[in-house]
UniProtKB/TrEMBL annotation:
Keyword annotations of the record: Cell membrane, Disulfide bond, Glycoprotein, Immunoglobulin domain, Membrane, Repeat, Signal
This protein's record includes keyword Zinc-finger: no
Protein name in the entry: Ig-like domain-containing protein
Basic and acidic residues bias: start-end ranges: 367-393
Compartments, record wording: Cell membrane
SUPFAM superfamilies attached to this UniProt entry: Immunoglobulin (SSF48726)
GO CC annotation, single: neuron projection
Main location: membrane
Residue segments, region Disordered: 348-393
Domain Ig-like, first and last residues per copy: 45-147, 152-246, 249-342
Pfam families: I-set (PF07679), Ig_3 (PF13927)
């Protein structure tokens, strides 16, 4: 590569790395003195063995390359970046390329024989080979390698969400870069075991490797998976992938039959597992039920794919008895469950009746069920209290009846004792 040293049209070429030296501008002073036979014999310059040591720096820091030359005389020192062709950075005491990137400290040290090239704010593109050259004939040079320590980074091409149909296989990839090459591990964000083969197959809390293969995924695989890349250079970097498993809705009634007396409040509950989230409707005798003065619908989300749906019937009347259907539908299909509401003369008009099942929304269901049983429990407690009170009253009456007899006996015993003393 041709480089202008000054306003003159002087051209030169640097010696390529690891190749036989070629004629260079650095040899120009030597050639002149030989042509005119005015050369004075001096010791040849020597680049010290302690010079140009390869270095590893953290990205963003400055890298320094020291070149110590003894017996330099009238020769010149140059720094170049290896390449095809080499790129001149400095010559003697002048920077020729990117003065914001490079700094030259010339003729330093006790003997004024040290040249230091500073690479400011080292970046990925600054990695590579650098040479220190002296314009002798032939040119002498020494090479050093600049390497960087780069913290890990996860490729932004890694998807943040993956969707798969239940029963299929899926692979999650986490592509990470850095120097040294980072290692990658996977874990679930909820700290649960990662099942590699089906919902109940073998698994582990940590998976090592950039690729995570899951076989025959089920809805239980639905979670956030975190990949963590590390290479010993802080900070580590993580990336979260949300795995969504789609499947046909499944509906289950908490109770197939719910009893309620006229005038009371009844709640029919069905639990639905579905992804995507389903559209849930209630029907009776083929007619959709909407919120009104008589009906109110609500739902409780307990897990990403699990919801509880409640149909509240206010002031149950004879027309409300019969069969109700809870229907869930998503893009994968639909499913339903039936609940029968019947009369129950054992409950009073203030009773709240509910259908429940094991599953989500435990706190709400327990609250509803406890409310539903409160009247009966209160009657049972009151009945027990009344019976205990009657037993206490009977015992008190018997005690009162016994007290006169006891008093008379005590009085007679005292009189007999007094009579005996008088005789004595």
């Amino acid at each position: 590569m041709s480089v202008n040293l000054s306003t003159q049209t002087l051209q030169f070429r640097l010696a390529p790395i690891n190749q036989a030296p070629e004629p260079s501008i650095l040899m120009f002073p030597t050639l002149l003195c030989q042509i005119f036979n005015v050369c004075t014999r001096h010791p040849l310059p020597i680049i010290s063995d302690s010079s140009m040591k390869s270095t590893v720096v953290l990205v963003g820091e400055d890298a320094e390359l020291l070149c110590k030359v003894t017996d330099l005389g009238r020769h010149k020192v140059a720094f170049a970046r290896a390449g095809q062709p080499p790129r001149l950075i400095s010559f003697d005491e002048k920077i020729f390329r990117n003065v914001q990137k490079y700094e030259l400290r010339s003729r330093g040290g006790p003997q004024a024989d040290e040249w230091t090239l500073v690479i400011r704010n080292a970046k990925e593109e600054d990695r590579g080979n650098y040479t220190c050259q002296v314009n002798t004939d032939p040119v002498i040079s020494k090479m050093a390698v600049v390497e960087l320590k780069i913290p890990p980074s996860v490729s932004r091409n890694t998807p943040s969400a993956v969707e798969v149909r239940e029963g299929h296989n899926v692979t999650l990839n986490c592509k990470a870069e850095g120097t040294p090459e980072p290692s990658v591990i996977w874990r679930r964000a909820d700290r649960q075991i990662i099942r590699f083969n089906g919902a109940t197959g073998y698994g582990a809390t940590i998976h090592k490797g950039a690729q995570l293969d899951l076989i025959r995924v089920s809805r239980k695989h639905m979670a956030e998976y975190v990949c963590v890349a590390s290479n010993g250079i802080p900070p580590d970097e993580s990336w979260t992938v949300r795995l969504m498993v789609t499947f046909v809705p499944h509906v289950l009634a908490k109770h197939d039959t719910v009893s309620a007396k006229r005038g009371s409040v009844a709640r029919l509950v069905c639990d639905v597992e579905s992804w995507p989230r389903p559209e849930v409707t209630w029907e009776r005798n083929g007619n959709f039920i909407f919120d009104s003065d008589h009906y109110a619908t609500s739902q409780i989300v307990s897990q990403p794919y699990h919801t509880s749906h409640i149909l509240e019937i206010r002031k149950v009347d004879i027309d409300h008895y019969g069969n109700y259907r809870c229907i869930a539908k998503n893009e994968n299909g639909h499913h339903h469950a039936d609940i029968h509401l019947q009369t129950d003369p054992d409950y009073d008009g203030n009773h709240v009746n509910t259908g429940t099942m094991e599953g989500g929304a435990d706190d709400e269901d327990n609250r509803v069920e406890s409310y539903g049983d409160s009247t009966r429990d209160r009657n049972v407690r009151n009945g027990g209290e009344n019976e205990e009170k009657r037993d206490q009253e009977i015992k008190a009456t018997e005690l009162k009846q016994a007290l006169p007899s006891v008093s008379r006996s005590v009085f007679q015993l005292a009189a007999l004792s007094l009579f005996i003393l008088m005789l004595w």
